[in-house]
Amino acid sequence: MSPTERTAWTSLGVGLSVLALKGAAWWLTGSTALFADMLETVVNVAAASAALAAVRYSALPADENHPYGHAKVEYFSAVLEGTLILVAASMILQEAYQAWWRPKVPEQPVIGLALSAAATVINGTWATILGRRGRRLGSPALVADSHYLMSDVVTSAGVIIGVGLVALTGLLWLDPLLAGLTAVMILFSGWRLLRESVGGLMDEAVGPDDLSTIRTLVSAEAAGAIEAHDLRTRRAGRITFVEFHLVVPGAMAVSEAHDICDRIETALKSALGNAVITIHVEPEGKAKHSGVLVL
Predict the structure, then answer these.
(1) Residue 238 structural domain
(2) Residue 80 has pLDDT above 70, yes or no
(3) Cation efflux protein transmembrane domain: from which residue to which, for each copy (predicted)?
């Protein structure tokens, strides 16, 4: 089992534990805000299951039908998670609307809030660990899951404070109000997640920092060449794709041009990790005098 898959299994286990705690908190109190918090965790468990399936499928090697591998499937998991978040938010808003007109006093608030607080601490700890592992492993599905978990921590903390105020002050309208605010925050989280995931499916280029690294390494490692132009990049899950045209002197031997390409590939893979590099070698007559000039 790969480290990415082990992490996905752990995330699912943590999600189920947190769901049990939040479900107990809502069952004991009957709070609409705690119901919203629990429903958010239901979405998280479903998303963690999807992330696990995506991670396992993305690890499959390239085949005849998928010559570039299966890594991009992780973006579909992130899109699904974003969609589930939007569905959960709409359900919470509906529940909050009904509770606004028929408010009720939360029961056993102390025990319920203690359970919810314990679930929030577990969520916050795991979200931090998951985010670091997801970035280290280059997994969009795990990173997306960590972002959602952290937003869950923020909303849960607000809900705990609010339900505590309801119990102390008797202001019952605070409960559905908090549920509604939770739904709004979830909506923003879901929209951001969908935007990032769709960007991956649409083959967005790497970020400015990575692009600067690529240009610097190509310039430094292409000694003997003239320039590199038409640089294009994209990401598919944990894999970074880089392609460009390398212009060399017309009289240069094929073996020498190949050595230059090898140097560039080695440097880029060392810096980017899991990368696929495609270099098209051209004679100097194809130079555009733009792009990356060789140092």
Answers:
(1) 208-293
(2) yes
(3) 11-202
